[in-house]
Amino acid sequence: MVDNVIAVRDIGKAFAGVQALDGITLEIAPGEIHCLAGENGSGKSTLIKVMSGVHAPDTGTIELNGKTFSKLSPIEAISNGVQVIYQDFSVFPNLTVMENLALNAELAAHRTFVSWKRMRAVAEEAIAKINFTIDLDEKVGQLSVAQKQLVAISRALMSDAKLIIMDEPTTALTKREVDALFAIILDLKARGIATLFVSHKLDEVFEISERFTIIRNGKSVITCLPEELDHATFSHHMTGREFDDDHFVPEHVSEEPILETRGLGVDGAFADVDLTLRKGEILGITGLLGSGRTELALSLFGSKPADSGKILINGEVVEVGSVRAAIAHGIGYVPEDRLTEGLFLERSISSNIVISEIDSFVSKFGALDQRKADAEGQRWVDELKIATPNPANPVNTLSGGNQQRIVLAKWLATHPKILILNGPTVGVDIGSKHDIHRILRTLASEGLGVIIISDDIPEVIQNCNRVMAMNAGRIVAEIDPRTTTESELAELMSKDPSTIDGKG
Amino acid sequence: MAKLVRKLTKSNEFYLLLVIIAVSIVIQLRSGQFFSANNLVDLANAMVVPGIFAVGAFMVLVAGGIDVSFPALASLSVYATTRVLVDAGYTGGVWLPFLMVIVVGAILGAFNGLFTSRFVVPVLIITLGTASVFSGVMQGVFKSVQIPNLPQGMSDFGRSTLFVATNPESGLTSNMPVAFLILVAVVAVAFVVMRYTTFGRGLYAIGGDESAAARAGFKVRKIKFWLFVIVGIIASLAGLVRTSMMDQMHPTNLLGMELMVIAAVVLGGASITGGTGTLTGTMLGTLLIVIVQNSMILVGIPTFWQGFALGTLILVGTGISAVQLTRSRKRAPALVQG
Amino acid sequence: MKQRRFAGLAIGLVAVVGLGLAGCSADADTSTASGEDAYTIVIVPKDSTNPWFVRMEEGVNKFAADSGNDVYQKGPAETDATLQVQVIQDLIAQGVDAIGVVPVDPGALETVLKQAMDAGIIVVTHEGASQENTMYDIEAFNNTQYGAFIMDNLAEAMGEEGTYATMVGHVTNASHNEWADGAVARQMEAYPNMTLLAAEPRVESQDDGEVAYQAAKELLKKYPEVTGIVGTSSFDAPGVARAIEELGLTGKVFVSGTGMPAANKSILEKGLVKTLTLWDPADAGYALASLAEQILDGEDIADGVNLGVTGYENMTFAEGSDKVLEGNGWVVIDKDNVDSFGF
After folding, report:
1. What is the pLDDT of residues B277-315, one digit of tens each?
2. With 50 as the cut, is the pLDDT of residue B238 above it?
3. Which region, left, alpha or beta, applies to residue C304 given φ > 0 means left and ψ of -120 to 50 means alpha?
4. Is C125 helix (H, G, I), strand (E, B) or coil?
5. What Cα–Cα distance (Å) separates residue A496 from each residue in A471, A491, B312, B337?
6. In a domain, C333, yes or no
7. How many domains does the structure of chain B reveal?
8. B175: nearest CA partner in chain C
9. Touching pair A, B by Cβ (3+ pairs < 8 Å)
10. Is C220 on the interface with B (CB under 8 A)?
């Protein structure tokens, strides 16, 4: 094997007594496409920061370009060819593509005055490296996510990069954009430039990665080839727990539908949606960003009332014109962005849980029965296995997965008959994700009707007994997850809608 | 060519210019006075102080903050300078007052800069505080009162004229003050700084995304600190010009101008969230407000309605740019294709 | 200062003792020239450091010398209603005979002034027409009459003919508008050859010399027939004068208005403005102390009361009031007397 581009050995790093990294070793060969996986808090961001010189390790060495460092400065990292592309790309939305590409070089040269002519030449050269064609005078804020990412990649390549570290690069990209990205990465590989993906999902970069390193609690768990991994082993390495990979099979499905829609539509978002949900079912609705999935959820929950069609609950036509009406009809909704839509982060766990049923803890004198409310909060903490020493702690002390459980608890506390979840496990680590799926299955088996709206294809395939695919505002197909593969479903979601023969 | 036209029609400045031309024509039709030489000189004269202030406010807005302390800062630095010189019986040229306000303005600006670069508190809140401190020092420490007689050098500077425009019909004369050159110089220097220096591009970068700017290698704190030093100097120059031209130091004369100036800059296309805007737009925005403010009587708008008219202009003008902003944000993926 | 206060206290004490021992023929007070029982009268201004009130103190001291009573001025160090209340409380504790107040905020003083009156102290005010707890309030003049006086000055400069406009700080400022109305009324009645500019009868200077300057320029450009501007706020005349000078209209267009002597010395001396009007705080201070003395002497305060200083010789009650006395205490400043005021 040739010399490594970078090799970190026995890296240890502690923050305020907490061991973030503990004896990590990672080697990347020239042109290698490597995936670093780990749950949130496993230490992968700390490791990137050590590799890019942001943090100095307490122990261990970094070998770069044949030189050995016990600590690295950001400038040394860059001059030895290490470039990081952060999830937000670190671009300036208000500046042109040209400036975004060329400003770094002007700064690196310690110039006082900038030359627009020089910057244009530098920028042209940068985009030529990856055959990226774009108007250099366009503002970056006007570009698509994929284009922004290409700007960031072009910028990273300018300084003779040997290793490009990409933090969750495919999360916000469409299938076609991911393919384009992979093509570029393969091209870089051909030129000997290595790529390190950082991810917490297996499927995102599975097809292109040549080797995986999985870390957990600051320690390397395994470095292996992709052939050695499947969903179950990946999850196991990530969490240290065993998960069964079974499909959801509903047990007691009611005869009569609990929720139906007929020709439901919201102007400009979706149209002609007919769906049926029975007690005990978990119905999946999937589609890309902009397919109308979120709007559909919001109209069922009354926060974006439908412009056409009708909603039936227990066979009766009802008016769901407001959130209040939806709650009164027994509909609960767990929003997509729990941080902005669902929780009061500064308030305690138990008050967040009881807030939507606060009226039932108020005595006739108008005073809150704190003890009763606390007991209710504690009950849900136990029931949903929320990992906290004290329900009186503020919500922002919890991890993403536990926060999501609180949102869930908050809605379950209102005793809904129908529960709609929008992206229930976005940004949640694998362990919590499994736990949330378990909870949803239990709820369904207890007679709740559950709808999961998600673009996480494995999630809906595994946890729903029926899945509807949305595309450009229409339901284009209903599939049986046990007989449909992930790629078939992905196809339905991303196809040009005019070529699909489906309903509607 | 087509690209140029498209770029032009997309720019805020182009529309602002159209509005200014339209307003000018309306005033001309109603009064017959707008395009007379002496009226244009009067407008240039009235533009000097708000124009200089606007340059400073613009630079802070680009970096993503709203500075409301510049009138108080200018008042204090000019008051202190005038007081000291009057008490010392200074009779020399205007160079010393200029030097003094620049030094005092830089120090007061550094005070702003220190707070804004060290604390993660919005510039608006910090400068609300420092504005009170500045006017408090002026009133408390200096026991500010009107200073009726300025040092000779300042008086002479305030009265010196580049040329005199005469209206052939009425025989009225208007003076183009030498101070107009200060506006020109400040704008020219600011233009070069904002466009051709890494400092100026750094202000845009910080206004666009502060953490990205830090990652790119901009020394964010240092840039912010020097920004406020420069803005302190610019504001003090405006204050000295106003005081000299009025031929008396009135400590509270400038206070309250901040809102009009910020409105003018926003009208000129600078976003209050930072990162965007041009100096051309800033000057056009200021010009529009100055024209409207100084044409109410020419057009014959009753006194009672003048505030209303100016307020409406600001609302409509800034509203249009807000609409443009939301429209460009909504240009995200189309939902239903057909 | 301290010494004088001590002296005042001593004299006051002696006076009280003297009053208390009625019948005793011994006259302990040898410091008063007249030999009568001396009163302690204290004038409380808004702010003892403000030049306006420094000037007022001169009048107060003059009255002290003229009357032989113990009369002095004592005010807060800055314009602050709370500090002014403290000063008055001190005076009540000292048991002075009379207090004359220029209230910072009439509302804030009601309680303490009532305490003073309950303690038997004579209370009078100046520029406090809305004050409830006061025996009398004196105003230098009636607003309408002051406006007429401004008009007289402008008419003289304009040769009693031509078109004029009025300028106020804000169209919502009560005093300025009463002055402007008074000026217009005076013109209608006395100067038939003058006309008010119908298109723009009242413009605003926003109490800002720069705005006054810009507005005057516009006005004179748009309406060349205008040859006079009635200014009211102290910012108006200097700003308008600047416009007149720049437009080359010196000697053709005139402005009048209120203004302090020192601040307007240069425009008066250059002849840009012939006369300005104002009221002299020294006279007001003298009159206030004089009123207090007359009440202490048990004199009947009625229409026509004479407070012994020019402009306050024939005070009359304001319409519908039995408390507010108005004089005609305005003065004219021109280039000849501008240096004689000292403020």
Report:
1. 999 999 999 999 999 988 888 888 888 888 888 888 888
2. yes
3. left
4. strand
5. 8, 10, 48, 10
6. no
7. 1
8. C246
9. yes
10. yes
Which CATH architecture group holds A6-239? 3-Layer(aba) Sandwich (3.40)
Structure tokens at B85: 């010189």
Total domain count, chain C: 2
- Are C45 and C110 in the same domain? yes
**SS3 of residue A434 by DSSP:** helix
Query: How much is the pTM?
Result: 0.75
Sheet containing A474-479, strands listed edge to edge, beginning at the edge strand earlier in sequence: A331-334, A418-422, A449-453, A282-286, A466-471, A474-479
Chain C segment 15-54 residues within 8 A of B by beta carbon are: 49-51
Beta bridge partners of C40: C70
Tokens of A280: 């005990």
User: Is there a contact between C266 and B304 if contact means CB atoms under 8 Å apart?
Assistant: no
CA–CA distance, A1 with C80 (Å, rounded to integer): 85
| Interchain contact C/B (3 or more Cβ pairs less than 8 Å) | yes
DSSP A345: T
At C145 the three-state DSSP class reads helix
Q: Give me the CATH topology for the region A246-330+418-426+447-504.
A: Rossmann fold (3.40.50)
Is residue B29, in this structure, part of any structural domain at all? yes
Task: Look up the domain containing B91 and give its range.
Answer: 9-323
Query: In this predicted model, what pLDDT tens digit does every residue of A320-337 receive, in sequence order?
Result: 888 888 888 888 888 776
CA dist., res. C292 & res. C295, Å (int): 5
B246/C264 CB distance under 8 A? no
Do residue C94 and residue C182 come from a single domain? Answer: no
CATH number of the domain at B54, please. Answer: 1.10.3470
Neighbours of chain B (3+ CB pairs under 8 A): A, C
Residue C255 structural domain: 143-278
Q: What is the pLDDT of residue C1?
A: 41
User: Which CATH number goes with the domain that contains C188?
Assistant: 3.40.50.2300
CA distance to A215, A344, A378, A412, per residue, from A355 (Å): 38, 10, 14, 12
Beta-bridge partners for A260: A276, A312
Spell out the residues 6+ positions from residue B16 whose beta carbon is closer than 8 angstroms to its own: B267, B268, B269, B281, B284, B285, B288, B317
**Is beta strand A194-199 parallel, antiparallel or unpaired with respect to A33-37?**
parallel
